[in-house]
Amino acid sequence: MINKIVTLEEAMSHIKDGMTVMIGGFMAAGTPEKFMDALVEKGVKNLTLIGNDAGWPDRGIGKLLINKQAKKMIASHIGLNPEAGNQMNAGTLEMELVPQGTLAERIRAGGNGLGGLLTPTGVGTIVEEGKQKIEVDGVEYLLEKPLKADIALISASIADKRGNLYFNKATKNFNPLMATAADIVIVGAEKIVEVGEIDPNDVMTPGLFVDYMVEV
Amino acid sequence: MINKIVTLEEAMSHIKDGMTVMIGGFMAAGTPEKFMDALVEKGVKNLTLIGNDAGWPDRGIGKLLINKQAKKMIASHIGLNPEAGNQMNAGTLEMELVPQGTLAERIRAGGNGLGGLLTPTGVGTIVEEGKQKIEVDGVEYLLEKPLKADIALISASIADKRGNLYFNKATKNFNPLMATAADIVIVGAEKIVEVGEIDPNDVMTPGLFVDYMVEV
Amino acid sequence: MDAKEIIARRVAKELKDGDIVNLGIGLPTMVANYIPKDMDVMFQSENGFIGLGPVPEEGKEDEDLVNSGGQPVTIVPGAAFFDSSVSFGIIRGGHVDATVLGALQVDEKGNLANWMIPGKMVPGMGGAMDLVVGAKKVIISMTHTAKGKHKILKECKLPLTAANQVDMIITEMGVMEVRKEGIILTEINPEYTVEQVQQATEAKLIIPKDLKQMEI
Amino acid sequence: MDAKEIIARRVAKELKDGDIVNLGIGLPTMVANYIPKDMDVMFQSENGFIGLGPVPEEGKEDEDLVNSGGQPVTIVPGAAFFDSSVSFGIIRGGHVDATVLGALQVDEKGNLANWMIPGKMVPGMGGAMDLVVGAKKVIISMTHTAKGKHKILKECKLPLTAANQVDMIITEMGVMEVRKEGIILTEINPEYTVEQVQQATEAKLIIPKDLKQMEI
Fold first, then answer.
1. Checking DSSP bridges between strand C42-45 and strand C49-53, what pairing results, if any?
2. Which domains does chain C have, with CATH numbers?
3. What are D65-87's pLDDT values in tens digits?
4. Whole-model pTM?
5. Which residues of chain B neighbour C81 with C-beta distances below 8 Å?
6. Which chains form contacts with chain B, at 3 or more CB pairs under 8 Å?
7. What is the ipTM score, two decimals?
């Protein structure tokens, strides 16, 4: 079996300036916090970040924004980290705001090889700007395109050595979706156990999606 | 808490002639077999059946076909029940063959309020007949429409009294998807336990999707 | 009783036994406090679970269990966790019976604006756009005016969250239903006259013959 | 060694350590028998799991654990179960390294026909269309001709499973790669001459200078 367990440094070595990086979690719950700290220290720049939200100024994705490491962000909510709005208004951070359900589906589509999806969400709002509208059986939908990334940084409560993942409570959120949608998937696992310790019925993300794991 | 547990007879009383019925399972694994028997006995006619396959002549969805209760079937594979092909060739059963992954996504789209999805599967084959082709970023996709049903008949290994479901091993297949996509969702559960006996992390279908349950 | 309590108490009366409900952040959250003990209402938290319970006792917070505002919460028996695509599948797919949201502006066509003030507040739409499009019943709960300025308008001026989706508006002054013909004042708080309510409303209110006293 | 064993042994050599592989029903299934013991290959079963193991001993069958042909199977340590939408997300999303499938016909453009004979056999495409479109490498494993009739054609005559997706054809006569310029015979079974292989093939084979002996 290929060893996927690496050091924090090895894991972070895959992340380069200008890359598109998906970051799991929802208001920092389920965000791999150690990876945020390591990226701040590493100082990679011009990242395009994809995440549900901008976190808090001192927690989650917010740390990378405060440290001005992103040129663009794709998120559904940035209200609890004023830095995101400030950089957006100053024109130093390009911001693409996406309805949360659409964001989830776009990432899922990216990971699942779909060319896009039709959603009623956003019809009649500024979200429809620049998008194709398609009528199906008399109802109008927006065509939303898939999202993919170079890197996904996700967190898991338990991982086995094959990379099978288990998420505790509300830490699941975007993590299993992002695990499918990036060229390199790096997991910050609270606990890494032997193969077989997670019941095959209860695996939430199969190990085939995981490239590297760090016990954090 | 509303009581969702009913008798087999009560559960089957919701199924009427001419209805569209989704049936979970994959080659009869995870198909609610008791419901098949009950429907054969009840003799409802002119059903449109949606399922992965036509089962076997004596197991799964196949029983309903043998008993000539369907006017139409939407499935991905019918090769292991010759009766399906015979009725199709005789013109007494309208057959819509759908690639398995597309069938799963169409049911999911129906349950998730999406207007459709774009898939590369089937491009350049007879599956594309009558479908809109949409190009996204230079690649051609088929627009596949959502599927919904009047009734979903699914099976679960464990259900709690709220309708939270757990599927054992390969019985999961289409069951959690169909649970989202029908007006009335009826579960044949091998075991019904008290609320709380399924860990909230391990619930595979939340009870909110379930209308009726029968212990089978 | 202050305005917010009046509103929350009245909204609670709109919910029915067995309902699946999503409450927005702020005032809508208060609604949970006024659900009768013998009524079974399950609250969905769009970050990934059904069965949202009260705020935990101090010292008993679980960092894996937060609501969509990132605040510590608890779950009730029968809860279930899921990822963000399932969460919004529930929402967009019409499996949420009611959503209760605040508003910046709402108009007589049922348009809602509650997610941004251009040049000022741009927190992002989060899950609001999906909720308003997907929930079976959209209830706006808010104070009738903002510092004397109208919020119930002939036509929203702020960017919309969704078009034509609002079903009901509940304020401290009364209960309004949004129908094809316009906004109907169905109940009035006896502390106000019809004239006062109309004066606080830009849209022309339709006053039915059987205008009722607001049930609180 | 019979033709099927030759083919299965040679296909096995195409698989690499760490690969995720989906084997079609029939001849392709035999490939699993020839994977070196020290090589880590995980087999996906499209009905909903990764980690397909050998056929169970008699009397140890589990009706909840079948393959996509509905036959009893086992799982290996590190397996994981999932629903059909996840299963085909894995397939369509490019997370399967190789799929090994049989064919009725295959042509020099990489077109494949393996799911129906109009007027005769209409089993349905099952998961084949998704697999051929989604897998990183599509390997056709089959006997070179069918009762003396050509199967490797200039142009498929039967309804296609997918267009332009076949990467490699392995028969008892040799190994062929499908490239832009046509079908290249890269390896030949020393029991045959190039002329014999060409005679058994309708498409014009490109014979490279470094034509190798087929590794078995």
1. antiparallel
2. 3-213 (3.40.1080.10)
3. 999 999 999 999 999 999 999 99
4. 0.98
5. 200-201, 203
6. A, C, D
7. 0.98
